[in-house]
Design goal:
Helices cover 2% and strands 47% of the residues. The protein contains one helix and 31 strands. The strands form eight sheets. Strands 21, 24, 27, 29, 30 and 31 form a six-stranded antiparallel beta sheet that branches. Strands 1-20-19-18 form a four-stranded antiparallel beta sheet, with no helix packed on it.
Length: 406
């Protein structure tokens, strides 16, 4: 049983100058394609101002119903559900070549320029393959989770990014044995992610949010959402594959059900804000430590950020502590890493009650457009009632967020 005196510092909702607004991380209105997919011919498009991320450049019929997309230099390739590797004309979608591979089911596709092979994910058997351009399998390993639906090669890190819709995360894995190097949370409220592409110059990832009918550009360093834009074709499964052409950074988005491939200008760029973990957490049930992360791009021009907690004890009551200074105060067998005064935001983790690691939480925050916010630093930590912790409270590591100018 926790002594009430120990909970007082966690239960205080301190007076602060921060205005908190719970709001969804929503993409801006943008282009639409019309009609919503047709089995033959090019698709008539409506192009809006190029200043809007996601402006439609062109679109064409996805006659071969490819799922994954990847560029090999300036050559565009796709892979079908039946694992047929298809070379497509990147300007009109005309099929230039097709190869039947040794695989039986496929979704994600990437090109490993270092090893001269394609990366393919199989969400039915939860496997990641490497195949030659002729379709022969040269490597196979178990996927990092149970729903791999996107693949991309990171030339800077010499590693693979695997998007997983069941885990709701994007994994960076070793290209030789598939071991997980680290992972990032999917953008909040995406429902199911799909596809993956990496742009090395700006070090960003491009993924689909199938249930939000949107695409997201994320920092590959910390998962911050740099920009998002709608991909509204209004089908059950919106978006499958994603690829970025290196020569002009245009984004190619495959939609199998709508029989469409869209080419858009994602206006890929970096984020002026920063996120960084600090300090150490305290494990609870199952020896698991709650993980506190943030997604979004914290900038003073107005942006959406979300605090995201994972790996907590399912159904646990907890507090998100947020303040403007760091601390290292011994308490509850661990350390409170946020200095008072702080806001203590109470909440319940989702997941199955009592199950270690099954608890998650997501809190959106809208940052107003105000130059005076530039340089503002916020420090956060999550704390949860957990009988598996030394003194019945588990703690995450700290997270520092600094608002950038743009």
């Amino acid at each position: 049983m926790i002594r009430p005196a120990l909970l007082v510092p966690l239960a205080i909702l301190a007076t602060t100058t921060m205005a908190w607004t719970q709001s969804e991380v929503l993409p801006p209105d943008g282009w639409r394609a019309s009609p919503q997919g047709t089995p033959t011919g090019l698709i008539e498009t409506e192009v809006i101002a190029a200043a809007e991320p996601g402006a439609l450049v062109t679109s064409w019929a996805n006659l071969t119903e490819v799922r994954g997309l990847a560029f090999r230099d300036d050559q565009l390739f796709g892979i079908t559900q039946a694992a047929v590797l298809v070379e497509l004309d990147p300007f009109n979608g005309r099929v230039l070549n097709a190869v039947t591979t040794e695989l039986t089911d496929a979704f994600g596709l990437g090109w490993d320029s270092n090893r001269g092979a394609f990366i393919v994910t199989d969400p039915v058997r939860d496997l990641v393959f490497r195949i030659t351009p002729a379709g022969y399998m040269v490597a196979q390993f178990t996927a990092p989770a149970t729903g791999p639906v996107g693949a991309a090669y990171d030339t800077t890190r010499d590693a693979y990014w695997i998007a997983d819709w069941e885990a709701d995360r994007i994994y960076l894995i070793d290209p030789d044995d598939g071991t997980t190097i680290r992972s990032l949370p999917a953008p909040p409220m995406t429902g199911r992610i799909a596809g993956a592409a990496h742009e090395p110059t700006t070090d960003v990832l491009l993924v689909h949010g199938r249930d939000t009918e949107s695409a997201y550009v994320l920092s590959a360093v910390n998962g911050m959402v740099i920009t998002s834009f709608p991909v509204r074709l209004t089908w059950t499964n919106n978006g499958d594959g994603a690829a970025i052409r290196a020569s002009d950074r245009s984004a190619y988005l495959a939609h199998r059900e709508a029989a469409t491939v869209l080419v858009v200008d994602p206006q890929i760029g970096g984020c002026g804000g920063t996120l960084a973990s600090y300090g150490e957490g305290l494990a609870g049930s199952g020896g698991l430590e709650p993980i506190l992360e943030a997604v979004g791009c914290p900038v003073a021009t107005g942006s959406s950020v979300a605090w995201v907690v994972s790996q907590g004890r399912g159904g646990s009551l907890g507090w998100l502590l947020v303040g403007t200074a760091a601390a290292s105060t011994p308490m509850l067998g661990g350390q409170i890493l946020v200095a008072q005064p702080y806001a203590a935001i109470p909440h319940l983790l989702d997941g199955i009650t009592g199950v270690p690691g099954d608890g998650n939480f997501h809190l959106p925050l809208r940052l107003p457009a105000s130059p005076t916010l530039t340089g503002l630093a916020l420090f956060a930590q999550a704390a949860y009632l957990d009988p598996g912790a030394p003194q019945d409270v588990s703690l995450s590591a700290g997270l520092r967020l600094v608002v950038g100018s743009q």
